[in-house]
Every structure is written in structure tokens, then in C-alpha cells.
Specification:
Oligomer: heterotrimer
Radius of gyration of chain A: 29 Å
Number of helices of chain C: 11
Order of helices and strands of chain A: HHHHHHH
Strand content of chain A: under 5%
Chains: A mainly alpha (about 220), B mainly alpha (about 270), C alpha/beta (about 280)
Structural class of chain A: mainly alpha
Strand order of the largest sheet of chain C: 3-2-1-4-5-6
Shape of chain A: extended
Structural class of chain C: alpha/beta
CATH class of one domain in chain C: Alpha Beta
Largest interface: A-B, 121 and 132 residues
Distance between the termini of chain C: 12 Å
Amino acid sequence: MDALWQDIAARPGIYIGAICTIALMTLIYRENAFYRFFEHVFIGLAAGFSIVVLIKEILDPFLYQPVFQKGEWYWTFVFMFGLLFYFIHSRKYNWLSRLPIGFLMGFSAGQAFQGFANTYLPQLAKSFRPLYVTTPDGSLDVPQAVNNLIFMVVLVTVMSYFFFSFEQKNRVIRNSAQFGRWVMMVAFGAIFGTTIMARMALLFDRMYYIFSDWLRLVQ
Amino acid sequence: MLEPLVRFFAPQPLRLLPYYVAGAVVFSILVVFLLINLPSRARKPLIAIVTFLAGLFYATEFFWPIDKATNKNFLTDYLVSASKLGSLLGGMTLTLGILSLLRVHGRNIARLRAGWYNSLALLTAMVAMVIFGLMDKYGTNAGAKKVFNVLFEGMLINMDATMFSLIAFYIVSASYRAFRIRSVEATILMVTAFLVMLGQVPIGNALTDWLPREGWIASLRVENVKQWILSQVNAAALRAIAFGLGVGGLAISLRIWLSLERGAYFEKEI
Amino acid sequence: MAMTPETPAQRDIWDRLQAIDRRVLYLLLLVVIILPLFVPIRLPMVTMPSTMKLYQAIESIPQGGFVIVSATWSGGTRAENMPQTEAILRHLMKRRLRVAVFSFDQQGSQFSYNIAARLAKEYGYEYGRDWVHWGYRPVVGVVLKSLVRDIPGTFTTDRNGQPTKDMPVMQGIKDIKNVDAIVEIAASGIYMDWIGLVVGANPNLKFGFCPTAVMAPETYPYMDSGQIVGIMEGMRGAAEYEKLVNTTGLATKGMGSISLAHVLIMLLIIIGNLAYLVTRTRRS
């Protein structure tokens, strides 16, 4: 028993973390008061952490230091402008919060042109693949040529699926769209398969924490 | 002509700073007072102007020709300042929800509603995190730093991870109960999912480990099948979807920049 | 035509399978995840081309090169992003490259600092001389636009508020042209911001991405076009990378559990569909 208390004293964070983990996991059995209590604690901690980050990593380096240490007083205007965000809680002056929101949205929208050009133009260029591909010794590289053909066919058929501006009466376009739908299912199947990996990894991490970090039953 | 303005907005010595800061605060309050008294028909145009000017900076900086000698245009030097402005402004949105939390849970405690002790726990946790978080950064007390570590690494991180890990259980349940092969599309999806799942885990790889690693027959190894699916079919399909998303995103960005966007938020009377 | 009568026992099995309590499924999942912790399953793992490309890209950076690591993830995706962050930082420190770490996520800033500080002790890395942590930045686009043109101006202070200008690790770093590689470890689509606003500005810049597994398929078009040089896909990618840098971390230890979980899901899908098919056929 003494050894247990000593271990708790030496590793309080691990013990508390294990209790929190088990408390939240009780949800899979049934919603209960234990889970609800720790859920509220979690929200409180997250909210508190965002306040700490605001002060530590935003207001200190971007407001306090430039203004009070470098004399760049004009950042005060930005801070006051940012306070307009909090009018979102006011029923009467709610519209004032739209000013800084609109400002940030404008900032992002202005970057969209560069983002589009740099993201999609190289993609477009790389989509035109050669259908006649040779190996270093000059002979036809059949597997690569077939791959390129498949790539182009998939690309075109999936794009044809999204032609919603007109009714797809033509049989060629209809069949192309149908094929595009099928190959999209391949992509979605791949996403489903990788999603399984992602979610199972999260659960494994929790079990590892319980059995290795806390109980030390495994290495 | 601009020199007095440049001097005014230049960094000031510490002895004059309080006056400039106070002046900025007072000026800002006056502006807010003016805004509050703005006629309602002028509000949307004002928001549109602010949005447009903000976007104009980056759009102009991208499109304006650059001087080949210096590799920049007249706006490039202001990118750093714009970054600081955006960071400060954007950072202030972090705690927008806190007031709502305080209001809702404060009311629960004050009126002793059902589950008021949960609200008390929430507010206590929030206050504790703020106090010990700031002491960790600005204080020297080793005990406070230990408490912050317990709150952050011991509690917050573990609970965050646990909340997300619950999804694994729901995926199992959904896979068993809801994943039904009722059509050609569902069959294609399932077969692909199985191949990708087998290809990404060692147990799956072991199934075709007996196949040679070189030659055409190596393409039948499950990890190579998975790789082919991802890099040929999946890449092409998602690229096609991405083109559509990209054009749509650009259109939406343009509409937001020019305040042409419609919808519940944009059309609401203010 | 008269249907062949089925025994009540046969009808019960398929119906019972379809109506199985979800908590039985949860228990099965817990068992397959926990079992390999006690009975390790060590199976050989083949390194995927996407992981190898990232590894080789880092290997090709000359000694003393400068690499930015952005760890934009939080506790929710810790299982995948933490081993990825660790594997990448290990590789960078093994190669004695200069490392600058920062995050667009509040928690990620703290996480990445803790991991880097721990590994720095192991590899004899000195803060300020070999590595630096720039802290947290909230708004992605504006920071990336600024970073392309002026890195010391964008990150004037580090995480602890110390000026970065005179730090030895930042010597010679003016803009994106002085950066050899960027590695983003994230659980979001932030790679599109990097590609859109940064990658195009320096043709020699290598951009590596370490997403959670769920996001990996959507990044393949960008690897195909060369905009992303390599991808470390989720926990599997992290396990492969751990093998490449000769270490055994959380990702490697997790492969056994993940494998069994995958097999369980596949079996459940098959059984679920079989039960559905049998009951549907019986009804029709």
C-alpha cells in the first residue's frame, strides 16, 4: 500500500490521466454521471488553456512586447479592433463583430488567387501524361503506358460525373459519368480503409497508456 | 507631406508611450461610439469596404508586377506587418466562446439547476488551468509548474485523446451494422477498402509475402496492390474532385471578397 | 413453390448475429487491441514508396541545412502525429541539420517543444545553436505569406520570448530560399496552404507531409505532381520511418494491435453482410 502511495506521489499526472481516460471510456458502456463530470472538466481545461495561449502566445509577443518594449504603440489600434469580436455576444451591437470577421475573411479571400494558381496549375500540368512511354533502352514501357492511360481515363470520367450544368442526355457522357462514379467508390474505399487505421491507432494509444505508462504491465 | 504622419506612427520613446496608447484607446472608443450611431443602411457597405480592403492587400501583392532587381513590389515589405496584424487579430478569436461558457454554466450554478456541480467543475478547471498556466510561463514556482504539467499533460491531453479514441468503437459498430453491400458501388467500395486495409498492416502483407519482390508478379503483392490503388486510381479520382473543389473555392473566395455571397449569415439584417 | 422450412435454431443464429449487442463488439475490439501488448506480434514490414521518398529527401539535404518542422496537431491525433514528429526529429538530429519547430495549433506548440527538448538531450542538440522553437501562430495564411519573404521578421521571438535574430541556428536564414525542407505534421488540410503559398516560391524546396492515415489518400495527387516530396502515412508510415531511423517507438509497438483490429473489422463486415444476405434471402 505504501509503495502505491509513493508511486502516486512520484507520478501524479499519470494516475490522474488514467482515471480521466477510464472515466471518459465508460461512455461506451452507457452514459453516466462519472463520464459527464469528467467531460465538463475536459471542457473547462480546454477553455482555460485557450485563455493561457491567448495571453502567452498572442497578447504577449504581438501586443505587449511591441507596444511596451519597442514603443510600437499603433498595435493598440489592432487590439481595439480585435475587441470588436466580442460584440458577437451583444444582441443590439452584434453587427460590430462583423467588421473584424470581414477583415479576416478578406485577408483569406485575397490569398485565394495565389493559392489556386500554385496548387492547381501544377496539378493540371501533371495530368497530361504521355500514352507512349519508352524504357531507357527505347522499347515501349507497357505497364507505365497502361498506368498513364488508366490515370487519364479515371480523371476524365470522374470530372464528367460533375457536369451538372446541363442534363447528361448523351449516352457517352452518361456512361462516362457512371464509370466515374464507380472509380470514385475506389477512392472512397481507400479513404475508408485508411480511416480504420487512423481510428484504431487512437484507441491503441489509450490502451498503451493504460497498460504501459500507468500499470507498467508491458514495455 | 507624409513625413509628419510617418513620424507620428513611428515607434515612440517609453516616456511618451502612455500618452500615445491612451490616445489610441480613446480614439478607438470614439470610433466605436460613431459606429454604434451609424445608420443601419450604412453598416453593410462599411463591412463590405473593410472586407474588400483587407483582401485587396494580398490580391494586389500577388498580381502587381515585381521589380526583377529586388524581386519584390511596393507591398512585399508589408507582408511581415500584415502577418503580425493577422496573428494578433486572429488570435483574439481564441476565447470568443469563453463568455458563452461563463454565462451558461454560471447560470447553472447560480440557480442550482440539475447537474450544477458539473458546471462548477468546469469553471474550477478553467480557472485552475489559467492560474497555473500563467504561473508556468511567468512564475518561478516549481510546484506551480508541476501542477500545470498535471493539468495539461496528465488531464487535458489524455482526455482529448480519449474522446477521439471513442470513435474507434463507433466505427466497429457501424462497420458491422451499417456497412451493407446492396449495390455495385458498395461492392467496389468494400473490395477496395479490404485491399487497402490488408496492404497497410503487416498481417496483410504477410499473406502475400511468399510472392517475389521483383518482376511483374510482385505487383500482386497486397502492399503493391494498395500502392497502385492509391497512386493511380485514387490519385486521379481525388484530383478530379480537387479541381472542382478548387474552382468552387476560388469562386466562393471571390464572392466573399466582393461581398456578393448570399446565405443566412450574409443576408441577415443588421 | 413451397419454401424449405428452416429450424428455429437456424433462424435464431442469423437473426441473433444481426441483433448482437454493440457492447460485445466493443469488448472484442478491446481484446484485439490489448492482446498484442502482452503477446507481441512481430511481422516484417515493407516500407512504402511514399515513406521512402520522404526519408530520401531528408537524407539528401547537406549537413548544416535548415529544416522547418510544423507540428500542427493536438491531443486528439496524438497516436499518429506524435510518433511521426518524433521520427522526423530523430532523423533531422541524426543528420545534424538545423531545426526550427513551430505550430499552428495551441497544443501542438507545447507537444512539439516537449518532444524536441527530450530528443535534443539525447542527440546533444543545444537550443539556440542547433534548434529553435518559434512557438504558436494562430492564422496560417498570413504567416506563410510573410515567411516566404522574411523568416526572422515573421518569427522575431521564439517560444520563450527570446529574440531569434542573433541565434546561431538562424544564421544565414533570410527567406524561404535559405530553407532546404519543410515537414508539416498535421491532422488537417493545412498542406494546401503550404503548397499554395510557400512551395511554389522556391523550386529547390522539399515539402514533406505527415498526415493522419485518414488524410493520406487525398495527398497522393500532390505527391504525383511533385508538390509533396514524400508522405508519412499515419501510424504505419511512422512505424516504417522508425525502422528507417533504427528506433522502436509507439508506432512500431502498435502495428500488432492495428493489424488484429483490421482483421476484426473485415471479419465483422463479412459476417454482418452474410447475416444480412441470409435473412434477406429467407424473407424473399
